[in-house]
Amino acid sequence: MEAVRDLSLTVEAGELVCLVGPSGCGKTTLLKCVGGLLTATAGEVLLEGRRVTGPPPGMAFVFQEYGRSLFPWLRVGANVELPLKQKGLAGARRRELVADALESVGLADAAGAYPWQLSGGMQQRVAIARALAYEPRVLLMDEPFAAVDAQTRADLEDLVRGLWRERGMTILFVTHDIDEAVYLGERVVVLSASPTVVREQLKVDLPASRDQLHTRVAPRFAELRTHVYEQIQAAKRGAPARVTASDRPPPH
C-alpha cells in the first residue's frame, strides 16, 4: 500500500513547521521516515546534506502516547536520563542536563516521582524533557498533545513555542488540529489525501510573540485557520489546490 507519493519538502534550520492533512493521509508515516524509524521504498531523506538511514544523532522524537514511551518503573529523572547514557556522558553532565530539561518544562521538583504519579499533561512534559536533555538540533513531534485536555493542551503549545524560541531547535510538528497548527507554526504544510503529496505550504504571518487569549481571536488567525480548513476539506474530496486571498500577507 502506497502511503507517501512524490513528496518534496524542505525544513530550514531553526524553523517550526506544522504538518496537517486529512485523517489517515500518512502524516505519521512521513514523520517516521524523516526520523529514520521507517525506511522509504523510494526517494531519500537528507539531514544537513547526509542521507538518513536510521535514527540520526542530533534528532529526538516525541510520540503521541506518552504513557507508552515512559518506563513506569523508573522515576522521572531516570526516564529523562535514559537516552543520555547511550551518548557516553559523565554522570555529572547527565544530571546537569536532566535538571535543566526538567526545569525548562516546569517539573524541577518532579525528578523523584514515578510517571504514574503524574497527570497526563505532566507525563507529556516528562517526554518533552527527555527529548530536550538529548540536546537535539531537530525535534520531531507526532500529535503530542492529542491525549490531553484542552487547557493542558494550550499550556503545552505555549511551552513548545517558548522552548523553540529559547533553544533555536528545528521542529517538525504533526497535528490533526488546524487551530494548533496555525497557532504554533511559522509555516503550515497541508498534505493531500493518501497517498500523500504536499498540497500547499502556507506561511503563517502572525506575530512571533503569540498567546492563547489574543492570537486566537485575531482576524488574521481566523483567515489562516479558515484557509487551512478549506484546503483539508478539498483534499478529502480530491479537488486540486487553489490560491486564495488567505495566502497573501495582510495589507499594511
TrEMBL record:
It comes from the Bacteria. Signal peptide: none annotated. PROSITE patterns: ABC_TRANSPORTER_1, ABC_TRANSPORTER_2. The keyword ATP-binding applies. Residues 1-218 form the ABC transporter domain. It comes from Streptomyces shenzhenensis. One of its GO terms (molecular function) is ATP hydrolysis activity. Pfam families: ABC_tran. PANTHER family: ALIPHATIC SULFONATES IMPORT ATP-BINDING PROTEIN SSUB, TAURINE IMPORT ATP-BINDING PROTEIN-RELATED. This is ABC transporter. Keywords: ATP-binding, Nucleotide-binding, Transport.
